[in-house]
Amino acid sequence: MVRSVAYDCDVLVVGGGIVGLSTAYAITRAAPGTRVTVLEKEAGPARHQTGRNSGVIHSGIYYRPGSLKARYAVRGAAEMVKFCAEYDIDHAVTGKLIVATERAELPRLHALVQRGRENGIPVRELGAAQIAEYEPEVRGLAAIHVGTTGICDFVGVARRLAEASGAEIRYGAEVVRVDRRPELGVAVRTGEGDVVRARVLVNCAGLYCDEVARLTGDEPGMRIVPFRGEYYELARPELVRGLVYPVPDPAFPFLGVHLTRGVDGGVHVGPNAVPALAREGYGWGVVRPLEIATTLGWPGAWAIARRHWRYGAGELRRSVSKRAFAAAVRRLLPAVAEEDLVPAAAGVRAQAVLRDGTLVDDFLIKEGARAVHVLNAPSPAATASLPIGREVARRALAVLGSV
To answer: Smaller CB count within 10 Å for the chain: N or C?
Structure first.
């Protein structure tokens, strides 16, 4: 005989970033009347990856054709612009330049053109002289212009999703224990001692998604290895009209130091990518020994270090030396001086790493008994958040319908 349980909600979402809130929004739209609760440990939404990025609506040009990142970014970019317009959230479709500054980058730039076309993205190829049409201060051998790239206020989007979802949002509610019983449901205890009972749990915990999966009793097969991205603000924003990116190295999920004019008119410069000493390690002074030990205890972290130490050394150099950071920026924007770079808030990327050291390069969503786990959702997850939310909602509702 199965015991009767008084459920507080049908679906419990852990994490109040843009992906968790988009999931709540999608569930209540797809299945009106479904009771959804969102637990967020911070005092408000979007305090981590969502609120600490460049604010760019990505076109989808970088991502492998057919991958979730490619499909959801292309679809999500159009939907994000429409959502922002509908709810009067600051945004603009600016377009962007991807600029090759060395001959060795030209084949990679041409490959991006082909990839863009395969993903259905309009791309214009530019010679050196044509770059000035878009960015008079930028120098390069060649570039491509991607017209569908934009900018928006992702924190504003997250707030609107929270309001429009109709879900119960509980802030200051950190998950400390999960008791899952497949025949009954899921009970979650928060740091305040409250217990929330649900039929299905959805894990959108970002930097802690692997920990929440393990609390639930599921082995995710990956670990989050946090990488801090450090930014500067450009003291002379008039040097940059829009968005300017280098040609990325396809071996890494990072896009390199770029220049992005935000909705507030300021220009962000960065980020680099250095190992963080805590999952919320927004500066070198934030050190959490237990979290470092967890990272170092994962074989994949050592495999990354062995494989990519040269790349990492360059990133570390730019972290500790403003002169080195400025030199990297001058490859694109020769007029920049060290004094033009004003330190700005950093972000931390929640990067999933497999046991063999593989950096997971696509969105990763897995299911367990009465649970759906979003295990890799770094950039372009904010851009792609509406389609990601629908996919996670679809899976959660399927699990709900089967219990």
So the answer is: N
Residues in the chain: 403
Task: Write the pLDDT tens digit of every residue in 265-297.
Answer: 999 998 989 999 999 999 999 999 999 999 999
Q: Torsion over CA of 14, 19, 22 and 24, rounded to 10 degrees?
A: -10
DSSP 195-236: EEEEEEEEE--GGGHHHHHHHHT---SEEEEEEEE--EEES-
3-state secondary structure of 159: helix
Is 271:347 a contact under the CB 8 Å cutoff? yes
Q: Are 71 and 103 in contact (CB under 8 A)?
A: no
364 backbone dihedrals φ, ψ, rounded to 5°? -130, 120
pLDDT at 366: 98
Structure tokens at 342: 């004003």
Q: What pLDDT, on the 0 to 100 scale, is given for residue 253?
A: 64
**Residues 30 and 390: beta-carbon distance below 8 Å:** yes
Distances (CA, A) of 209 to 81, 203, 226, 257: 28, 6, 12, 27
Residue 172, pLDDT score: 97
pLDDT in tens, 223-264: 999 999 999 999 999 999 999 999 988 766 677 889 999 999
Burial class (CB in 10 A: 0-12, 13-18, 19+), 280: middle
User: How confident is the model at residue 1, as a pLDDT?
Assistant: 39
Share of the chain above pLDDT 90, in %: 91
Indicate the SS3 state at residue 60: coil
* Nearest alpha carbon to residue 23 among 312, 386, 398: 386
Q: In what order do the strands lie in the sheet with 150-152?
A: 56-57, 150-152, 91-93
Q: What is the pTM of this model?
A: 0.94
